[in-house]
Amino acid sequence: MSDNPENKVPKKLFIKTFGCQMNVYDSDRMADALAPQGYEQTGIMEDADLILLNTCHIREKASEKVFSELGRMKKLRDEREHNGKTTKIGVTGCVAQAEGDEIIARAPVVDLVVGPQSYHRLPELVAKARTERVIDTEFPEEDKFEHLPGPTKKATVLRGLTSFLTVQEGCDKFCSFCVVPYTRGNEVSRPVSHIVAEAKNLAAAGVREITLLGQNVNAYHGQGADGADKGLGALLFELAKIDGLDRLRYTTSHPNDMDDELIAAHRDLDQLMPYLHLPVQSGSDRILKAMNRRHTAKSYFEVIDKIRAARPDIALSGDFIVGFPGETDADFADTMTLVKEIGYASAYSFKYSPRPGTPGALMSDQVARKVADERLQALQSQIKQGQSAFNQACAGRTMDVLVEKQGRLEGQVAGRSPYLQAVHVDGDVSLIGSIVPVKIKSIGPNSLYGELIDTSMPKTANMVENTTHATSERSA
Ligand code: SAH
Ligand code: SF4
Ligand code: F3S
């Protein structure tokens, strides 16, 4: 029944998203693209007429998940068929791009395979998949963002107070372990005016915080109003002019692309939150070279010094890979030293996973799994210690919290600090949507707890000082 295009009964769409924030953003764009066809998003997979698996290919485990998920979906599709309902199943994202043909061959349950560059074609591809199996993993000439509809105001409101906004896609860096340049293609930046227009729409629908996304976001070089290319710093200065947009963030960045204008944005823009994810991957120059990172541990420290000079309270986060081919105990010790010296507020660490088609997979001196496991454990425990030290140091401080939702406990609300920490606050749901000064009282394993500073009270000298700290949290 739902196959009939004339049928006015809304069809249900379920999207399961894996991988990075860009996939989260893309999933919303796909839902927006299919909404005019009558597809309404549901959180219940069993109800869906169309299921899309938006996949990630970054590590082996990530792509294995896709095939096990497809097994589960086959059962579900058969059950629905038993009840006279049709279900179409599509695979999108980076596994679709990298292994599209293999998916079609290995998983007969899949009706549709669409790579990340073809999402604007989704409505016609879904229509075609009614009668035949469809695969589109082209890198089309046209700009997909130009052709992808934005969300309705209602959809944006439902998605909450914070939003992702992709400004750049693809990567030209070719780190020797990484599939992204193959799955997402060359670096492409969207024009400044398009991004500003999208950000204004988000702000008009009540969004207060935007995270700009790109696989290599600080390599952004989109066309400005004067026709010349603008960097990420210039883009941030433009976005900071938008009324109602109180918080800006961006992710993820490469150390070599932290230019002076971007660092100046960290110095000058109150809206730019003092939290930066700047992956380094390893502390050993030998390994960084083998990874084709094109920077050294020293140049990474130099960049961090510059950023800290501009914004002393900045919290840092990073990514690390252990067990890259050829990594010795001494190389790993260099990574541990770097982690201790930088003092990350948080960091992600991964065991190296050889990816088909990348130079790393062909390197001869692969590290034994057991050794990589041990290194990962040691690194994670060091990172945890750093994170806990960072959080403990927040006790007694006053910081701004963007209140996003009801808390776990009755009478509590929850939100994020400028440093992206989860903060629970005693308070009423009427606070949702506000940015309020909160005094941090205690530190839990995964979140902070604080009390609202009553700004309606007459300000004493002491409080004025406190609130000043709260709004800017910076010492220069
Ligand atoms: N564009 C981002 C990273 C994207 S991938 C950047 O340049 O920093 C996210 C993280 O996954 C990487 O930073 C890296 O730490 C990890 N990663 C990527 N490929 C990997 C692989 N083959 N094995 C293990 N971890 C990997
Ligand atoms: Fe992958 Fe990031 Fe390196 Fe690009 S810069 S190849 S996305 S790790
Ligand atoms: Fe994964 Fe693709 Fe993102 S491989 S990390 S979903 S760019």
Written overview of the protein:
This protein is an alpha/beta fold and 476 residues long. It has 3 domains: 11-136, Methylthiotransferase, N-terminal domain (Rossmann fold, 3-Layer(aba) Sandwich); 146-392, pyruvate-formate lyase- activating enzyme (Alpha-Beta Horseshoe), CATH 3.80.30; 394-476, OB fold (Dihydrolipoamide Acetyltransferase, E2P). The protein contains 15 helices and 21 strands. It has helices spanning 21-34, 60-82, 93-106, 122-128, 144-147, 153-159, 180-183, 192-204, 232-239, 260-268, 285-290, 297-310, 329-342, 369-392, 461-472; strands at residues 11-17, 39-41, 50-55, 88-92, 112-114, 134-136, 162-166, 168-169, 188-189, 209-213, 222-223, 229-230, 247-251, 275-277, 315-322, 346-351, 398-406, 412-416, 422-426, 435-443, 448-452. α9 runs parallel beside α10 and α13 packs parallel to α14 (369-392). The model is unreliable at 1-7 and 458-476 (pLDDT under 50). The structure holds S-adenosyl-L-homocysteine (SAH), iron/sulfur cluster (SF4) and FE3-S4 cluster.
List the helices and strands and how they pair.
Elements: E1 11-17, H1 21-34, E2 39-41, E3 50-55, H2 60-82, E4 88-92, H3 93-106, E5 112-114, H4 122-128, E6 134-136, H5 144-147, H6 153-159, E7 162-166, E8 168-169, H7 180-183, E9 188-189, H8 192-204, E10 209-213, E11 222-223, E12 229-230, H9 232-239, E13 247-251, H10 260-268, E14 275-277, H11 285-290, H12 297-310, E15 315-322, H13 329-342, E16 346-351, H14 369-392, E17 398-406, E18 412-416, E19 422-426, E20 435-443, E21 448-452, H15 461-472
Parallel strand pairs: 1-2, 1-3, 3-4, 4-5, 5-6, 7-10, 10-13, 14-15, 15-16, 19-21
Antiparallel strand pairs: 8-9, 11-12, 17-18, 17-20, 18-19, 20-21
Helix pairs in contact: 9-10, 13-14
Bound molecules: S-adenosyl-L-homocysteine, iron/sulfur cluster (SF4) and FE3-S4 cluster (F3S).
